[in-house]
Amino acid sequence: MAAILKDIEAQALELSPKVRGSLIHRLILSLEGPAEEAPAEIAKAWDTEIARRIADLEAGRSQCIPADEVFAEIDAIIRNTMSEVPLRARGPERVY
Known about the structure:
Elements: H1 2-13, H2 17-32, H3 39-59, H4 67-84, H5 87-90
């Protein structure tokens, strides 16, 4: 099994970034399985959630956080997580 996975990985790495992204997307979707709700039910659930969030903001139960602060926090989390991953497991060095 490990040899097969290595072969698949080697072949996948030969694909263009765009095709690899498409493959990754399809593989992730295959893990999720079929949607349990119909699209109309999902849209209705999102409408309800959006209305709840707006009501929470207007009532002062929650607050907005500027996007640049959110992205800075995400970047810090990624950097901290990546520093804990052994170099061999990281693959090519990336700048975050």
